[in-house]
Amino acid sequence: MRVLITGAAGFIGAALSLRLLARGDEVHGIDNLNDYYDVGLKQARLARLSAHERFSFERLDIADRAGVERLFAENRFDAVMNLAAQAGVRYSIENPASYVDANLVGFANILEGCRHRGVGHLVFASSSSVYGANTRLPFSESDNVDHPISLYAASKKANELMAHAYAHLYRLPCTALRFFTVYGPWGRPDMALFKFTRGILAGDPIPVFNRGDMVRDFTYVDDIVEGVVRVIDRPAEPDPGWSGDDPDPASSLAPYRVYNIGNNRSVRLMRYIEVLEECLGKKAELNLMPMQDGDVPATMADVTALGRDLDYRPATTVEEGVARFVDWYREYYGVDQNT
Prior knowledge:
- The chain is globular.
- Helices cover 40% and strands 15% of the residues.
- The longest helix has 21 residues, at 96-116.
- The N and C termini lie far apart (45 Å).
- By secondary structure, the protein is α/β, with parallel strands linked by helices.
- Helix 3 (65-74) packs parallel to helix 5, helix 5 (96-116) packs parallel to helix 6 (151-170) and helix 9 (269-280) packs across helix 11.
């Protein structure tokens, strides 16, 4: 296949590109290379991809309507994986405009490109954040998600609604993937594992929100990529059992699906920190802080649907995944094992 990956210089985008290239697909990546976090890390990810002759890249912001129109006019894509977005719950409180531009305007441009150029399947990143004020665990795709508690979450819910409209109007197969706390090598510096590792090694206190009383469904990046590849290969289809009298948010009479993609094992934040301490051989100094606005105390993914439809089974434990991240971090930043 020829696959367009937006956000190709990002954490998941680069990992997914490598996986598709390894199996023989052709990948065209785009990214705006913004400075939300270290641009050098993004460029290093791209450098790994550029060694593949079936990978091509251009710097492009999906909010650039004319640029996205040109991209689709000049290329034919069998599938599109939209990972370009402004990420982060807390940052959405500081800079809401960037979420409107990337997550709403940009996503609308991708939808238009897909429908005008006959793309066979649009897969896009949603988020566990859409569950918002929900408290019943595990979170199911069939749950109501009408109560987001951050603009980031609202923008991801909006993406799901926009995609459903295009699936209904234009029969564009669309699949939303709600990612749960992705971590691993080449990860994002604004995520907890990266911050904790840097702080512990430097001997600085690490910020622990809600005084550590948090539970997360930490999902290793390779498990995420495995699920994404399986979804890309299976375009969404209408659900013949769907009923408007009792509508299931996870499917539709249109070619549209929503899947959770997580580890299906919740881990307490304090245990996550303990594992990291063991891998680093160094204790953390904790700065216990109150819950941040827009955050939730617990997440856990019900992945029954993805297992049933695509035989998806996440396999990486937190102990394995954190150890791999620490090994990568030491190598990438040249940190001695005795530090």
